[in-house]
Give the backbone structure.
Amino acid sequence: MTTLVRLEILRTLRNKRYLMFTVLYPALLYVFFISAYGNGGTVANGVAAKSYFMVSMATFGAVGAVLTGSAQRISLERKSGWTRQLRLTALPGRAYTLGKIAACAVTTLPAIVVVFAIGAVEGVDLTAVQWLGLAAALWLGSFVFAALGVALGYAAEPDAVQPVVMIVYMLMALFGGTWFPVSDSLRTYARFNPVYDYNQLASFVHGEGVAALPIVALAAFLVLFTAAAAALYRKDARRA
Amino acid sequence: MATGTGEVAAFRNVSKSYGRVKAVNGLDLVLRPGETVALLGPNGAGKSSSLDLLLGLREPDSGTVELFGGTPRAAITAGRVGAMLQSGGLMSDVKVREIVELACRVHPRGHGVDRVLATAGITELADRRVDKLSGGQEQRVRFALAVAGANDLIVLDEPTTGMDVSVRRQFWDAMRAQADAGRTVLFATHYLEEADSVADRVLVLHRGRLIADGSSAEIKARAGARRIGFELHPADGAPAGPDFDEAVLRALPGTVGLDVSTRADGVRTVRIRSADADAGVAALYAAGYHPRGLEVTSLGLEQAFLTITGEQDRTESRTESEEEYVR
């Protein structure tokens, strides 16, 4: 199984287009936001713009990396018959999915680290513990979206999967505080949006302490998406 | 190659439908160790569906499929089966060596990569990217995946599609080497000459049913392996003129099919499909005929195949119209 996981990681890192989209694109957006808000700019609740968007662009990159990395590839490889070919090997069925998730997890790290590096250069001031804690929280949180990506990959056909992923991704980002903070009136509903909860993981660096609710919500989403992915996988296996 | 006892694979009264289409209909079949078996059938005959069932990629609606006395999945996990599917996609963004290495590593009885690359004749492609290969090259990579370990059964679905003639010959040489090593080989193909020259057993599948099972010589014999053609001129005597009786020709030994056409000048052109041309021709002369322009030609497996599936179609349409009539 490790051979497959290693090969999945290797081929993902080889795909330059994918790396551009998942690493470079959020980094450029972040630079754009910093210049748009100015060096001393703040968003709602007085949080510094450069610190707010550092988190939201890191999550934006991470979610993009895992969603496209898993959903698109799984869908394409179901169509091409590679998943059938793998079922004719002694590998257990879960190995394929685990390989995809591992490859995603490896690519979310650079997406997070590059944005953080820009933030540090631009003067986001955190303690070493905060930096590490934030990176770990965002990295772990990305697994929720990897599960969602796997589910979408088994649900949608290749010609549909790209628009489906894009719509899901953009709607979650739009109402999840990625481009602007969620207004008070929408906040009640926002907690049912995993991207909002994901962004909230960072609240402890804004001096608000560790938020328990988003962690619980993300854990619930993880269970939900994993169950959906498992059910869709089994359905796909029956249809071969 | 020795054919041992025991069962490599067994279909017992297996049926599978997709919606209203019966893809596989009451299939009963046993493969024995060491056999090289060709699976023939027109498009949509149920070849790929049967192979899917054999490999456990799909579950039968009724009946059972066994590989080496257990479930298909158990045989695969034990590393006893290698397969090359028609629709077996390959990983993108990896090199040929990497994907073959993956297959070797995950195989419980895997061979070394270099050996497998050599077996499949793709050593020189080892560093090429999989997504940059031609169709025939991709087929050889798929073949490498099917022979990555010490399998007892190798299943190939239309393996030579997209290969040019010389590559196809190399491929069958590699395949024969596998069979000579005592492996059971089952392959589906469109190319009947491949079945004729490679297989020691031929299965003909039509509309989900097994309609013929035997050596290629037996299949040809069943279809009437030779064609006897001649002309009968009225000037040559009574049997060819006023006393002409088709029933006499039909009664010739070995006759499987008869076709007679008469020209305006009374000359009849006769074509007989025969399972025993020698006896047929001898009896023809004994019955007092003087055939002109006598020709005896051999039918290929292709002709035999068309004949058998055609007969089946006629039988089925007759049964259907009788059923109509009864209603």
Observations:
- The mean pLDDT of chain A is 87.
